[in-house]
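[Automated response] Your request has been received and processed.

Submitted sequence:
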Amino acid sequence: MKKYKILMWILIIVEMSIIFGFSSQSTDDSVALSSRIAQQEYNLTHLASEDGIPPLDSFFRVHIRSMAHAVLYFILGVLIYIQCRLYGIGLAKALVISSLCCFVYGISDEFHQKFSESRNSCFSDVLIDTAGGFIGSAAGLITAAAGEKRK
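Generated structure:
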């Protein structure tokens, strides 16, 4: 059991480091990465017309960025939820703790962005981060509850 706890701590720190790394990017680097990912997604989901694929609008890019926030924090929520359960914390309490951890880390992430080149902080990003973390934590709870019912 101890090796799983250590592994989970490593995974949590890696995930937090990934989030920190993305937050450290300049606005230009962040927008360029989002645009590349959005363009690839758009290319996969839309057939090219005779004139080719139309350029992406900012609305689509914003949604890709919001989804990136949510997915990163979904993963963090799952990892923290699992870690709570490894420490013997109950299902519902683990959900609350992991969701709160994602909320607090989201706040610290936005605070950190204030000090990154040409970045700003936005409370709506904290809400998106928290929602992603809560959904990840809830997915952990549902999976754990289903596993306990099978026993």
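Summary generated for your ticket: Helices lie at 2-24, 27-45, 58-86, 91-113, 123-150. The mean pLDDT is 84.
If you did not submit this request, please reply to this message.
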